[in-house]
Amino acid sequence: MTDRFAPLEQVIADRLAAADAGSSYVAKLAAKGLPKVAQKVGEEAVETVIAALQEADDKLVGEAADLLFHLTLLLRLRGLSLDDVSAELARREGTSGLEEKAARPAE
Ligand SMILES: N=c1c2ncn([C@@H]3O[C@H](COP(=O)(O)OP(=O)(O)OP(=O)(O)O)[C@@H](O)[C@H]3O)c2ncn1[C@@H]1O[C@H](COP(=O)(O)O)[C@@H](O)[C@H]1O
Questions:
Q1: Which keywords belong to this entry (predicted)?
Q2: What is this model's ipTM?
């Protein structure tokens, strides 16, 4: 699945390495720092939720794409990739979410 995101991860890496804020949104946003990128992820997540509840499928897909794009950039800035997320999801395969939650240590 993450192969489909490889071109996006590559262009983000390329922009971070070589682009400037005048010609690249990735470079412009990254130059504002991790907190601003994290804030954008939060905003896009909220917009995705709103679209899920109130908008047509095409709008929801668009907001989800915005969210995944900004999340991919956030991960990259933390030295992580969608492969790391994919590996974590693979690790969880076969474990019921209900069982996992029940097995958590008491807080
Ligand atoms: N997938 C995306 C992508 N999705 C969304 N966006 C941009 O994300 C921005 C956020 O949109 P919003 O309307 O939410 O925000 P805004 O009001 O413009 O932002 P603020 O100023 O309020 O923070 C818009 O400028 C979108 O165009 C993207 N910008 C870039 N990419 C990918 O990144 C590549 C490199 O882009 P550049 O770095 O611009 O060359 C592109 O070729 C695409 O593959």
A1: Amino-acid biosynthesis, ATP-binding, Cytoplasm, Histidine biosynthesis, Hydrolase, Nucleotide-binding
A2: 0.91
Q: How remote is the CA of residue 87 from the centroid of ligand 1, in Å?
A: 27
The 8-class DSSP code of residue 98 comes to: H
Handedness of CA 87, 93, 95, 97 (dihedral sign): positive
Ligand 1 centroid distance, CA of 53 (Å): 23
Task: Indicate whether residue 5 lines ligand 1 (CB < 6 A).
Answer: no
* pTM for the full predicted model: 0.93
Ligand 1 atom closest to the CA of 36, numbered from 1: 23
In the predicted model, what is the mean pLDDT of residues 22-31? 97
In 3D space, the residue among 41, 52, 44, 107 whose CA is nearest the CA of residue 78 turns out to be 41
